[in-house]
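sorry for the late reply, my laptop died twice this morning and i had to redo everyting from scratch. anyway the thing you sent over, i finally got around to it. pasting the sequence first so we're on the same page, its 151 residues, then the predicted structure underneath. double check i copied it right bc i was rushing
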Amino acid sequence: MSGISNSSIAMSAPAAPVRRAASFWLWRPWYAKLWWSAIPIWWLGMMIASRVDLLGNLYGSAFGGYLNVLFFPVTALMVLGVGWAREMLKSFPATPISRSNRAVADDQVRNLEESHIVAARSLDAATDIYDPESGALYVGNPLSHQHVGQR
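ok and here's the structure:
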C-alpha cells in the first residue's frame, strides 16, 4: 500500500461544461484575428481602387468578386459563429420521446401526408388539360379553347 487512505482522496463530481462567450469563437483563434484584420484592409483597398486603375482591375475581376464575399463581415460572422452555435446546441438537454408522444406525432405526420395528397390531386385536376375534372380547361370540353371545334 502507498500509505494514502481512501478517506483522504476527495471524490469530486465532474465539472459542468463551461459556456464560452461568443467572442471566444469570433475573435480568439488566430485565423479569426487574421480574417477580421483583413476585412477592413480589403474594403480600404476597394476605396483606393476607385482612384487606381491597377487595383480597379483586381477588384472588378471575377476573383475580386469571390474575395468580396470572403471579406464581407457577415460571412466571417457566420463562419466563425459555427463553433459557438454548436456549443450552444450541445447545451440543450436531449429529451427522449415517449411512446404516447411518438404515436401522436406519427398520427400528425400521417394526417399531413393525406392532406398533401388530396391537395396535390385537386391541383392536378385544376391544371391538367387532359383531366376531365379540370372543367373548361379539359381538351374534350366543347367550351375549351383547345377543343377541335373552337379552332
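Residues 3 and 9 are 12 Å apart (CA to CA).
thats about all i looked at so far, will dig more tmrw
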